[in-house]
Amino acid sequence: MAKQDNRYDIVIVGAGPVGILLSLCLSRWGYRVKHIDNRPVPTATGRADGIQPRSIEILRNLGLKRALMAYEPAKVYDVAFWDPLPGGKGITRTGNWPSCPRFIDTRYPFTALVHQGKIEKMFLDEIEKAGTVVDRPWTIVDFENNGTDAEYPVEVSLKCLDTNVIENVRAKYLFSGEGARSFVREKLGVKISYKDQISFVWGVMDGVVQTNFPDIKTKCTIHSDSGSIMVIPREDNMVRLYVQIASSTDPDWNPRKTATVEEVQAAAKKILRPYVIQWDRVEWYSVYPIGQGIAEKYTLDHRVFMGGDACHTHSPKAGQGMNTAFHDALNFAWKMHAVESGFANRSLLESYEPERKQIAEDLLAFDNKYAALFSKRPPSAEEVGNAKSNDANAEENEFVQTFKSSCEFTSGYGVAYDPNVINWSPSHPAQSHLFGIDGVKLVPGRAFTPTTVTRLSDANMIHLEQEVPANGSFRVFVFAGTPQKSKKALEDFASYIEKEKSFLSVYRRPDIANVSYFERHNPHSKLFTLNFIFASEKNGVDMQSLPQIVKDYHHHIYADDIPDVRVPHAKYSAHEKLGFDPEQGGVVVVRPDSHVACIVRLVEGSGTVDALNAYFNAFSSKPLGQGPGSHL
Amino acid sequence: MAKQDNRYDIVIVGAGPVGILLSLCLSRWGYRVKHIDNRPVPTATGRADGIQPRSIEILRNLGLKRALMAYEPAKVYDVAFWDPLPGGKGITRTGNWPSCPRFIDTRYPFTALVHQGKIEKMFLDEIEKAGTVVDRPWTIVDFENNGTDAEYPVEVSLKCLDTNVIENVRAKYLFSGEGARSFVREKLGVKISYKDQISFVWGVMDGVVQTNFPDIKTKCTIHSDSGSIMVIPREDNMVRLYVQIASSTDPDWNPRKTATVEEVQAAAKKILRPYVIQWDRVEWYSVYPIGQGIAEKYTLDHRVFMGGDACHTHSPKAGQGMNTAFHDALNFAWKMHAVESGFANRSLLESYEPERKQIAEDLLAFDNKYAALFSKRPPSAEEVGNAKSNDANAEENEFVQTFKSSCEFTSGYGVAYDPNVINWSPSHPAQSHLFGIDGVKLVPGRAFTPTTVTRLSDANMIHLEQEVPANGSFRVFVFAGTPQKSKKALEDFASYIEKEKSFLSVYRRPDIANVSYFERHNPHSKLFTLNFIFASEKNGVDMQSLPQIVKDYHHHIYADDIPDVRVPHAKYSAHEKLGFDPEQGGVVVVRPDSHVACIVRLVEGSGTVDALNAYFNAFSSKPLGQGPGSHL
After folding, report:
1. At what angle do helices A53-61 and A321-340 cross, to 10 degrees?
2. Which residues form the FAD-binding domain (chains A, B) (predicted)?
3. Mean of the pLDDT values across residues A539-555?
4. pLDDT band for position B605 (cuts 50, 70, 90)
5. Residue B426: Cβ within 10 Å count
6. Strand, helix or coil at B488?
């Protein structure tokens, strides 16, 4: 037992954005986590600050949105562009556009801004509630995947920076969330490949200002004859200014070039003329060089992993660092859980690097394209109008297309994972003519679209995409169409899902006999939550006549009877917005990180469940979908 | 100075719903509050629990909504009716309807349920932050409005129930929130008049149950051959059952009749047959007699006041007790503030009793009517459809009408104060042809309707009705129509409101020279916040060209450019939903408790400001609107 004490499921190094989200998930899901950080205390202020619309969804799914909003973050709905007036007369607003235009279907069409210290604090409070404490100031001094212990193959040496005491632990996994200077990455010999080889020195200053500049509470990019600046409104009457101090494209490029607070303020005063600005106080100031680079590998052995800034660094302007880190962490967390819970083959972990590295590459490409887009000219009013529009017929020139994909990307809804064993495509091992439904707008690899429906048990109006919390379960959404039309198909679905070799039966809870009466999400299996949405008014569904296995998900049976402004003429808004025929319905499997996995037709007979079994069988550690039927 | 120490602006007796809301407002607004409660500790659990849609708005306006929602209250969206099946075969659902149907325009179409202890706690935390601590266990033993001190005319004797120490204090006001057994009311000799003279004994039980009764998470009234019961879902998997144990209409009426937990459970089991129910645990159980009564007076001298259960008691079924108490407290708080801040004549306090007593009378009348409505028959499907509808042309029989007014009442939006010096009507002292605008749907005395607009300074999408917090200020909403059309009218408005005798100038802040740059709500006067809403897209308003006095409210300048599902064809949803011509606009004065005060046309010349001056002059302690003009 004493020996057992230094064995952990995972060692997480670093308590920045990627480390805290990973630590929270795994601690909550029952893993033994060793989490260290080399700073004596958490971030006090400053640093990363922008939380994208899609990240707000992720935080809500983790139960953290209320804590975030309690900080009263500044909310950026709009970006304004300021350019020089001719004749040295200062600057003028030449355009503006929504930071998350209406064509992006999100509940949170804004970026929320609070400093990283507050974000870390809300995670750390919850991590502690889940039983993990971040040890500080501790650092990693050595590690080796030596396989001495087959179950805990990774040996890690940690050192307390206060006492110099060394602690050796064994772990199933080691995760580096160390930031740009990663000991783990260096020891592994993983190189950073620099895109375009452009580097920058940035000055960033958070402070409280008084000014007559009218857009001080709006995100702005300002080009003037005296230089450029980016303005980001912050919580507590603060504003952040980004000033580019040097670029490797400068003739006198010096990566050690710096600037004092006073120099940056003087520069800002010049740039903002004819408006005046003065500082009440400066809360945080930093100058840092940034190279836009991506680690060539995120893991070498699928035991030692990296994420966040350890894998990708880029300009802070796009506000993507923390958000990309969150996605890295969530992506790794559920896959490790799927493997360690005995559900998925170990090879599932091989999808972490390609999925996340591709997004980092998109990010860097975007970063450059975004800059180029604006250096040419501001958008015209007509182009802004077209770009904001929801109307698929609006004319789209290259400018508008780039703008749209930029907005999708900065909002976080542009994260689109390629086809692989999790994201179904025609080349997936699971083959059935029931995969894919014409007209359905959901795309495997992309986030599940928000819809609002009525829960039958308590008539509550709910946000369907948030109904299953981030607990590592796959979400199976059965859009059950009209109750009369789909009665037989639903009965067959219930019947075949009860067969011995179905995904639900094979992975049923070992404690199924003792599951609480109040269990809402996982009555049968810890790995799946079933949801049933009927194209019907609330009173049109007879709960009592549903198959028992459906009734067991009493918290997840819904009527699709809430109007949606995005499909104003729809009778069954959720079905129709997603593109389902409201009579036929269909089944959507959503990954534990809320990305769509596959879409299957809902038909009479065994076909639908056969297709789902085949889908999960592609990465299941136990065979699914064969053998004689028997009951759950 | 030692003598000064026992002088308070107000002594509040009782820390139940009415006392805590009053204490919070007055403590925050800078008053010296002595607040006592005779219980040694706050409510632990049980008691009142239902917070209406309109009360949720009030809590949000006090900054308490996030704390409320953090308790994860049960939300009641629907009420189901169960009735006996013929032949003793148990019960069946005969109907259901929304508890807050769509014709009621609210952001929170549900009742939130958490026990009174949690609600008290969130108030007590904030009261303490505002500098007041509730002394416990203390009681009131004597009081007298003896005028010995003209400024603090009320002498109050308080006694500590732990030590028997007596403390004598002087106060400007004494407020009894003591509940049904009020020492203050008895000493004043105020009688309770009992409506209909019907009394009841109720048993109420909060507990965690397991049942196959399908509507256990819905509010239900159940009539069976074995008796009647009301089911209210609660937070934390609890359910509340109300059982009527005795009624004064019973032949063997005995107000001391009681029942044990086991008896109530046995009764519930019989009533719910054929469904089964069993208790995991009982959290709270109480039996109490209720007489439906109203105090004849709420004050005798406008120094000693009463509110909450001290003034009105009624059946708990309608879920109105706590909500009515909140309204009592808010109504008194802002009026006392208006008087004590030097703004309003003391006679303004005379409106507290008639406004609040009328609502208590409406409540008792409603309580009886509501009961009668259901004892006859459940509503038909068609009636429910008509009643839910937003369509003004739907046929309305008496049943539907009663239902609609019932829903309005239970949601809190039925509170409609009669015309008086605050609620303008043609008999108001202020006379101008500019009062009242044809087509405008706002009614003086009723709550201001929710609308969503875009704030110009930061492009945030905001809820207009919540933009000014409950800080005791009147809110002046200038619906400024189209900027081009209303330019001159708005310039004149700005010009005349700057004149020496305008309401804004006469009551300007004495510290106006030192007002913070970041002041959002009260740059000129602590008593008024001006808001300007333009019928325009965000980019159609040139902030720079607005009059300086308008620009001073930079946090309160809005564009009416957000679609609203309730007026799907409107271009300027807020203007059009409220009934304003989007070209002309108009001005709405809203009381500090969010009830509409008056509506005035926005015209060129001095007329609009003249009308507003005349309106406020009706209760202003200083003359408004006369004399030569000069600048603020």
Report:
1. 40
2. 8-366
3. 93
4. very high
5. 8
6. helix
Is the pLDDT higher at A220 or at B473?
A: B473
At residue B629 the predicted structure's pLDDT band, cuts being 50, 70 and 90, is: very low
Q: Which of residues 511-530 of B touch A (CB under 8 A)?
A: 517-518
Mean pLDDT for all residues in chain B? 90
What domains can be seen in chain B, in order of their start residue? 7-73+114-195+293-362 (3.50.50.60), 74-112+199-289 (3.30.9.10), 446-618 (3.40.30.20)
Q: Is the Cβ of B77 closer than 8 Å to some Cβ of chain A?
A: yes
Closest residue in A to B220 (Cα) is A458
Identify the sign of the CA torsion B37, B41, B47, B53: positive
Residues of A in contact with B459 (CB under 8 A): 76-78, 96, 98, 218
CB-CB under 8 Å, B544 with A78: no
pTM: 0.91
> Both tokens of residue B433?
């042809």
Contacts of A306 (CB under 8 A, 6+ apart): A175, A176, A177, A182, A184, A185, A190, A295, A298, A299
Cα(B437)–Cα(B424) distance, integer angstroms: 13
Q: Is the pLDDT of residue B393 over 60?
A: no
Cα angle, residue B78 at apex, residues B72 and B214 outer, rounded to 5°? 85
Give the pLDDT confidence score for residue B8 in this predicted structure: 98
Strands of A456-579 (E only): list them. Answer: 461-463, 474-479, 528-534, 557-559
Q: How far is CA B182 from the centre of its chain?
A: 22
Residue A78: which of B78, B109, B459 has the nearest Cβ? B459
Distances (CA, A) of B115 to B49, B57, B179, B240: 5, 18, 17, 10
| Confidence (pLDDT) at B316 | 67
How far apart are alpha carbons A189 and A172 in whole angstroms? 21
The reply to whether B218 touches chain A by the CB within 8 Å rule is: yes
Q: What would the pLDDT profile of B35-59 be if each residue is shown by its tens digit?
A: 999 999 998 877 777 899 999 999 9
Q: What is the pLDDT of residue A385?
A: 61
Instruction: State how far the Cα of B271 lies from the Cα of B449, in Å rounded to an integer.
Output: 42
Question: Is the separation of the CB atoms in A101 and A79 below 8 Å?
Answer: no
Q: Positive or negative CA dihedral for A283, A289, A290, A293?
A: negative
Max CA distance (Å), chain A: 84
Between the CA atoms of A371, A374, A376 and A378, what dihedral angle is there, to the nearest 10 degrees?
180
Where do the DSSP E strands lie in A164-212? Answer: 166-176, 192-211
Question: Measured between CB atoms, does B548 come within 8 Å of chain A?
Answer: no
Task: Determine the distance from the C-alpha atom of residue A93 to the mean position of all C-alpha atoms in its chain, rounded to a whole number.
Answer: 33
